[in-house]
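ok trying again, last paste got cut off:
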Amino acid sequence: MDLEQKIMTELKAAMLAKDEAALRSLRAVKAAILLAKTSEGAGGELKEEEETKILQKLVKQRKDSLEIFQQQNRADLAKKEEEEIAVIEKFLPKQLSADEVKAELEKIITAVGAISPADMGKVMGAATKQLAGKADGKTISTLVKELLSKN
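nice, full thing came through this time. structure:
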């Protein structure tokens, strides 16, 4: 079952359960998928990697909003963002822990022969491809900087 079908199934269940948080989240995902499918050059079909990127983008947007709402002491709006993040993350592949990401990055650094922070571009290129959908880009970047500055 592809992502769009899963979303539709969950959307129907959320409607029956009158789950407002799930409805908001699932409608946003459905809209993002439709936009991507109808965009120029998409051909009406999405690959699994593209679907994952869409979901990651939606989660990132909500995390950014959540951070802003927390800074402004808007607990009501922050709660909505947290609920939506939880719903959307159900459709993402299991995220690696920081330790697992660090272990993978150490392998990548060894493989590309990186020895200093100047080699960050090489490492990030390989890491983002290898860890796509499994780890957040911000986390990868932070850990790569940390690992390369130790060398």
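cool. The radius of gyration is 18 Å. Residues 55 and 91 are 8 Å apart (CA to CA).
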